[in-house]
Amino acid sequence: MQQQQFWVGVVFAAVFVGFLMYSINKGKDLNSGQRLMLKILSALCAAIGGALISGDAFFNLSRNVPGGKLTVSGTAGFAIFFVIWFVFPKGPKFEPLPPRFKMAVPEGWTFQQVADSCAQNDGCVIDYDGLTAQERAARLKPWKLETDSVLEAIEKLRSITEADGAVRKYEVKQEKSKYRLTVGG
Description:
Elements: H1 2-26, H2 32-54, E1 57-65, E2 68-75, H3 76-87, E3 101-105, H4 111-121, E4 125-129, H5 133-136, E5 143-147, H6 150-156, E6 170-175, E7 178-183
Parallel strand pairs: 4-7
Antiparallel strand pairs: 1-2, 3-5, 6-7
């Protein structure tokens, strides 16, 4: 029976190593929840494999103390569990989400109203360098904007005007607390 238990433990440990190799190769950028799950699974699987391989108590300490006898014992699985638990590499304390900008363009808003609203989100103002009053008053379609930045959102406004070509091509640059829209960029 002991020989059979040993081989079951060896197979279990081999499967565990394969699982870890697969997990690490597939999950290069683990978030904190996935990292915790991998830590728990690693510790449990190693403990079960170690317990099946060794079978008996791996650590046994007995001492006579005043008033009785103190005995501490543990299996290899117990020891391996704690070794993996405390040695498992820690990931970053938190994983910040990539910055995203989201905005719903209300019906009937003009190019300037939406651009100003976007800039205000960053605490900035806009310099409409070369855009005519008619271009700034161009109506936009109701739209849900989701971009990586406010600058990118302002760059996309031209493509959601109600009338095609209502706003000429422009370039957006951020200069400290100001966005500069320059026609012809």
